[in-house]
Write a structure and sequence with these properties.
- This protein is of the alpha/beta class.
- The chain has two domains: 116 residues, Rossmann fold, CATH 3.40.50.2300; 96 residues, Winged helix-like DNA-binding domain superfamily/Winged helix DNA-binding domain (Arc Repressor Mutant, subunit A), CATH 1.10.10.10.
- Helices cover 43% and strands 22% of the residues.
- It has eight helices and eleven strands.
- Strands 2-1-3-4-5 form a five-stranded parallel sheet, sandwiched between helices.
- Strand 7 and strand 8 form a beta hairpin.
- Helix 6 crosses helix 8.
- The radius of gyration is 20 Å and the shape is elongated.
Length: 223
């Protein structure tokens, strides 16, 4: 499970995004200030820091530099009200991985988080797979789409997991059927499409789209 640390003295981020990030299946911790945040980073591993950033506060700039000097393996996403070319350059130069203008919508924040972890997919937690607007949480056996939780049956989960794990690669119906058989599930070829159609309907109810396409006569591909 991905672990996020929100550092926000104003508490605005906590109220706006904490609950939605948790609903996505992410583990989210809160630090009230940079000093507490640094102590938490030194005692635990985090995959991402979401930082409320003020360019006029030297503590903020120094915090980013300190993280990079410590060579901690963590992504850092800064949010700022002063989204000017100068601030963007100075923030990225000091060590931030990305910067977003405030106020930020949750959809944009989610997309930026996806982008950051696509860049370092080899460092992602194996329990999470991100494709487009959907994230499969393998440990919880749930699909999260921009904060919406899509509950899956065992068979639905195994099909989605198999396709998501090798996203971008075409999988034949025979391969999917063999995978399910290895997991102790006997299923017909027609039933595979029926299960995927059920998942598509679940996503349609929350205005989301399943990133799996059917290549007629060939199989399925995720992504």
């Amino acid at each position: 499970m991905l672990k996020l640390l929100i550092i926000d003295q104003s508490h605005c981020l906590q109220k706006r995004i904490h609950s939605k990030l948790v609903e996505m299946g992410l583990l989210v911790h809160i630090a009230q200030n940079h000093h507490d945040g640094l102590k938490m980073l030194l005692s635990e591993h985090y995959d991402l820091i979401i930082l409320d950033y003020d360019k006029n506060n030297p503590e903020h700039h120094g915090f980013i530099s300190s993280i990079r000097k410590l060579e901690l393996s963590v992504r850092l996403l800064a949010l700022t009200t002063e989204y000017t070319p100068e601030v963007i350059v100075s923030t990225l130069t000091s060590g931030a991985d990305d910067i977003i203008a405030k106020p930020v919508s949750f959809d944009e924040l989610y997309a930026r988080i996806q982008s950051l972890f696509r860049r370092r997919e080899s460092h992602m937690d194996d329990a999470l797979i991100l494709i487009d607007e959907c994230m499969l949480n393998k440990s919880e056996k749930c699909l999260y789409c921009q904060g919406d939780v899509i509950k899956l049956t065992k068979t639905e989960f195994l099909i989605i997991e198999f396709l998501f794990t090798d996203h971008g690669k075409l999988k034949s119906v025979e391969q999917i059927k063999a995978h399910l058989t290895n997991e102790g599930i006997s299923i017909s070829k027609n039933s595979i499409e029926a299960h995927l159609s059920t998942v598509r309907r679940k996503l349609k109810q929350v205005n989301r789209t399943l990133p799996i396409s059917n290549r007629r006569g060939l199989g399925y591909v995720a992504g």
